[in-house]
Amino acid sequence: MVKEIERAGLPVVHICTVVPISLTVGANRIVPAIAIPYPLGNPSLDAAEEKQVRRGIVEKALEALTTEVEGQTVFEG
After folding, report:
1. For a 10 Å CB count at each end of the chain, is N or C smaller?
2. In a 3-state reduction of DSSP, which class is residue 29?
3. Which of 29, 55, 27, 25 is nearest to 40 (CA)?
4. What is the pTM of this model?
């Protein structure tokens, strides 16, 4: 689905827990997430720390969204 949306002219960021799968399906902007059961958080952290982790992932995704890419690019934290 990511490729089809981009083909229509809209940039897309794929936040994922398994980067090799995103690479296989052809996503162009990839932001790694935390873990499969909690992609955008970590329930073992206190609320303030978890908010910081989530904010970091979202900020990285926004950075990726506004970055021109030539092909697949993984935006590491």
Report:
1. N
2. strand
3. 55
4. 0.87
- DSSP bridge pairs for 22: none
Residue type at position 32: P
Tokens in use for 48? 């303030």
Task: At 43, list the tokens.
Answer: 């329930």
Each residue's pLDDT tens digit, 42-56: 889 999 999 999 999
Using alpha carbons only, what angle is made at residue 58 by residues 20 and 16, rounded to the nearest 5 degrees?
20
Placement of tokens 């990511």 in the chain: 2
Rounded distance between C-alpha atoms, residue 38 and residue 50, angstroms: 11
Cβ neighbours of residue 75 closer than 8 Å, sequence gap 6 or more: 13, 29, 30, 31, 32, 60, 61, 63, 64, 67
**Alpha-carbon dihedral sign for residues 1, 30, 6, 25:** negative
